[in-house]
Each structure stands twice: as structure tokens, then as C-alpha cells.
TrEMBL record:
<dbReference type="Pfam" id="PF05147">
    <property type="entry name" value="LANC_like"/>
</dbReference>
<protein>
    <submittedName>
        <fullName>Lanthionine biosynthesis cyclase LanC</fullName>
    </submittedName>
</protein>
<keyword id="KW-0862">Zinc</keyword>
<feature type="binding site">
    <location>
        <position position="316"/>
    </location>
    <ligand>
        <name>Zn(2+)</name>
    </ligand>
</feature>
<dbReference type="GO" id="GO:0046872">
    <property type="term" value="F:metal ion binding"/>
</dbReference>
<keyword id="KW-0479">Metal-binding</keyword>
<dbReference type="GO" id="GO:0031179">
    <property type="term" value="P:peptide modification"/>
</dbReference>
<feature type="binding site">
    <location>
        <position position="266"/>
    </location>
    <ligand>
        <name>Zn(2+)</name>
    </ligand>
</feature>
<dbReference type="GO" id="GO:0005886">
    <property type="term" value="C:plasma membrane"/>
</dbReference>
<feature type="binding site">
    <location>
        <position position="315"/>
    </location>
    <ligand>
        <name>Zn(2+)</name>
    </ligand>
</feature>
<dbReference type="InterPro" id="IPR033889">
    <property type="entry name" value="LanC"/>
</dbReference>
<dbReference type="InterPro" id="IPR007822">
    <property type="entry name" value="LANC-like"/>
</dbReference>
Length: 414
């Protein structure tokens, strides 16, 4: 991948930077009631201040990053946490490693975490989820960060083995089945026997990308490549014919009608094609990259009213789409992606409501996770809230390759 270039310019760039500064001013004095996690709490917030430190080190943002990551790290020692990347101790540890890559202080010895993880991964059969947010794929993202340590190699070998065990032949490729007890209630009502999930957050696309990244390191190279290639074939085979709507459904299952879904990172074309481009780059597969980018161009040109976007978050909001298309522009140089990314960041900035939420941003979400409780809320988190919005804006306004978005499987290999 070529060197990262600043996407935004002129007044739009200045507006983005001012907005990020206002968000940071609010967050630096927040008391951390959201908890220590990467996706929703202190660890994710530390990444924002670390990225701010890269662009303007004279402002002392690094001190805030170190304070926040220290508070998050204490949680690993003081309270029982689940292992998952987005909400558990591996997410905090991954953030510590990322801050270390930026030259900021972190915990130097996390071998104990690696050993706990290896003990977990060697249990057979694997009965927990396989996905990025709270499963095998997320654990793989952490283990990749820990290379070349021997325990990290063993963890990745175990992850490839567990993913092979969970895979199933499907058509000319491979896929990964989500059983009904791993589905939220609304999906379980539709997919009573389970489904193949095509979303980046909980489904097959992130599995494929992780396996390709593992293969690229030389760990379990042949098997990881074989699984990644099979998964990529299956994903492309399940793209819907050319239509005004999205090409990739949120899920497929025998006997259940297939319908297009929204445009987002978590579900829909943008997240799927981003994972496929990561896969193609990691495997050196030019044909796969061409096919993925062709679908991405269709998605980029789709009208805003078909996107389903209503807020500025990363997971399924305007900032997330801006960041995905920025990533695709950086790897391809395609002006279509540059224009679409700029448009989504313009919409992100227009979504501010002065005097409301966090630095003017509110998000359509449910504090309880129940659909009946959906509403506009103030959200400081990385995945669904203003921390993620700020990180995406900053990546568009600074000439630095972002070091935080591997947790979204969005970091395209050089």
C-alpha cells in the first residue's frame, strides 16, 4: 500500500480537526464510567489520545493516553474479565500493544495473558463464538499483535485449527455456521436453525481476512491460505445479482428469503468488501482484489437514502462509511472512493447538534440492547459513539496511517 495521504483539505479539514479537538476536550475529563474495554471504554479512548499525540505532540495528548491505558490495564489485574477483543481483556492488551508501537508507555510483560489465551484456545471442541467481536477472530487479532513471540505463534496455530474444525463445505467454498444460540433474539426468530452470517462484525468476512493475515505471517501458512481462499470464494458466490440494493445480505440460511441490507461496517457491502480487500492484499490475489473493488464501487455510488445511516458512529454510521471508503481510496487511488469518503465525512460533521450529546453528537442506540428502548443517546464509546467518530475524522485529516483500526479488520497490509 502506498503512503497514507490526507483525505480532507481546506475548510472541511479544519472543521474536522476542530471537531476532534472539541470531542477530546470532553473525553479527557470523563470519569471512565463506561468501563475499561476497547470497544466501549478507557482502552478505546486511549487510542484516540495516542493518535492525537502523533499529529500534535506539543499538546500533551500522550499523557492522557498513558493515564487512560494505565487505568484500563489495572482492570485486567483487579477484576474478572471475559477474554474477547472488543469487550474483554485481550482488547485492553491489544490497545497496550498499539500504544507501545507509538512509543507510549504500556505493560511490558503480557506473557501471562498469552498463556491464559493459549490454554483457552487448545480446548476442544470450541463451543464459543467464532467472530471478531467476541470470538476466535478477535483473539486472532490480538495474537497477531504479539508476534513473533512463541506463545503468539502457538495461539495463532490453535486459532487456525479451531477455525478449520468449525468450517463447513458450502458450494465450491468454505463457510462458518452460526448456531441459533449464538444469535440475538431478533435474528434467532428469523433463523431458527442458525445461519451463515455475512457481516464483518459477527460473521464470515472477518474470518476470511484473519486467516489471510495469519497465512501472510508464515504461521500455519498453507492451511490458513486454503481456508481463506475457500471462504473468499463462498462470499463472492453469495453476492446478490446486480441490483439497486446491496449485493451482500446480512445472512443466509436454507429456506429463508435472502434480502439486501444496509450499508455499514458491521453488515452490508462496505464491511464485506473491506475484509475481501484485506484478504486479497494479504494473499497477493489480484483477481480477488479487482472483484472486491468492483463491488465496492457499486456500493460507493449508491444513494445516501439507501444506506440506512442515521448517526455518526463507526459501526453503522456515517463516520464508519467515511473511514472504509478512505481505506479503499488509500489502497487503490480510485477517485470514486475519495469522493464518497469525503461526502460521508461531510455528512458526519453535519450531524452535530450543538448543545446535545457529547460535543454535539448523539447516536441512535439502545442502552439496554432492546429494540423497544432505541432512542437518541450520548455515547462516548469507540464502536458506536463519539470516540470512534473522532478517530475516523482524525484519520481523514492527518497524513498518518491509522494504527487503531485493526480491531475492525480494516488495516490493509502494506
Amino acid at each position: 500500500m502506498k503512503n497514507w495521504t490526507t483525505l480532507l483539505d481546506g475548510e472541511l479539514r479544519e472543521q474536522a480537526l476542530r471537531t476532534v479537538d472539541e470531542i477530546a476536550e470532553v473525553l479527557q475529563f470523563s470519569q471512565g464510567l463506561e468501563g475499561p474495554s476497547l470497544v466501549g471504554g478507557l482502552a478505546g479512548r486511549a487510542l484516540l489520545f495516542a493518535e492525537l499525540q502523533r499529529g500534535r505532540p506539543q499538546l500533551g495528548h500522550g499523557g492522557h493516553a498513558e493515564r487512560l491505558i494505565h487505568q484500563a490495564a489495572l482492570a485486567i489485574e483487579e477484576k474478572p474479565l471475559l477474554p474477547w477483543l472488543h469487550g474483554g481483556f485481550t482488547g485492553i492488551a491489544w490497545s497496550i500493544e498499539r500504544l507501545g508501537a507509538l512509543g507510549l508507555h504500556g505493560l511490558e510483560d503480557m506473557d501471562e495473558i498469552d498463556q491464559v489465551l493459549l490454554d483457552l484456545l487448545t480446548r476442544q471442541p470450541w463451543s464459543a463464538e467464532y467472530d471478531l467481536l467476541q470470538g476466535l477472530v478477535g483473539l486472532g487479532v490480538y495474537a497477531l499483535e504479539r508476534l513473533p513471540r512463541p506463545l503468539a505463534v502457538q495461539c495463532l496455530e490453535a486459532i487456525v485449527a479451531r477455525l478449520e474444525e468449525r468450517s463447513t463445505r458450502a458450494g465450491s467454498g468454505l463457510s462458518w455456521w452460526t448456531p441459533p444460540h449464538h444469535l440475538p433474539p431478533q435474528q434467532r426468530a428469523m433463523y431458527t436453525a442458525g445461519c451463515f452470517n455475512l457481516g464483518a462484525a459477527h460473521g464470515v468476512p472477518a474470518v476470511v481476512a484473519l486467516l489471510a493475515l495469519i497465512s501472510r505471517t508464515g504461521v500455519a501458512e498453507k492451511k490458513a491460505r486454503e481456508l481463506a481462499q475457500g471462504g473468499a470464494r463462498w462470499l463472492l458466490a453469495n453476492a446478490l445479482p446486480h441490483s439497486p440494493g446491496a449485493r451482500f445480505p446480512s445472512a443466509v440460511a436454507p429456506g429463508v428469503d435472502v434480502t439486501p441490507c444496509r450499508s455499514a461496517w458491521c453488515h452490508g457491502d462496505p464491511g464485506v468488501v473491506l475484509c475481501l480487500v484485506v484478504t486479497a492484499q494479504a494473499l497477493g490475489d489480484e483477481q480477488l482484489e479487482r472483484e472486491a473493488l468492483a463491488i465496492a464501487r457499486e456500493a460507493a455510488l449508491r444513494p445516501e437514502e439507501q444506506s440506512g445511516v442515521c448517526d455518526a458512529g463507526l459501526c453503522h454510521g456515517a463516520a464508519g462509511l467515511g473511514h472504509i471508503y478512505n481505506r479503499l481510496y488509500q489502497v487503490s487511488g480510485d477517485a470514486t472512493f475519495k469522493q464518497t469518503a469525503t461526502e460521508w465525512f461531510t455528512r458526519t460533521l453535519r450531524m452535530r447538534r450543538p448543545g446535545e450529546g457529547v460535543a454535539g453528537f448523539v447516536f441512535w442506540s439502545s442502552p439496554t440492547g432492546k429494540n423497544e428502548d432505541m432512542g437518541w443517546i450520548a455515547d462516548k464509546s469507540l464502536l458506536n459513539g463519539v470516540t470512534g467518530t473522532a478517530l475516523a475524522l482524525l484519520a481523514a485529516a492527518q497524513p498518518h496511517t491509522p494504527l487503531w483500526d485493526g480491531m475492525l479488520m480494516a488495516s490493509i497490509p502494506a
